[in-house]
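Researcher: I'm preparing a figure for a lab meeting and need a structural model of a single chain. I don't have an experimental structure, so a prediction will have to do for now. The sequence is pasted below. Please return the structure as tokens so I can convert it later.
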Amino acid sequence: MRAFHGVLPQERTVGGDYEVSLRVACDFSRAMDSDHVADTVNYAALLDVVRQEMALPSQLLEHVAGRIVRSVFRRFPLVTSVRVELTKLNPPFGMLTDGAGVELNLSREECKV
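Model: Understood. Here is the structure written out token by token.
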């Protein structure tokens, strides 16, 4: 996914490629019986949250990851915990690397949303 995060002005102008991994935990016991998407968390709606938050430029990946977690908790009451991994695939380190990133793993109680 292309986004415009970074401390350096060039990162926020040119942008870069990012990988986002999102995992959510929830009680989906009703969905196991009902077979209705309303009884679980819609994956497409989760992707919309990620896209919206990634579209807002920030200096720090920690800030972006925190926004994603808080937005998921606000939008999906069934979610009890969220894990997000956010990786900048070609950071401006002056050397080849697979990426640099952050990982947040928070429960609803820890996030205080």
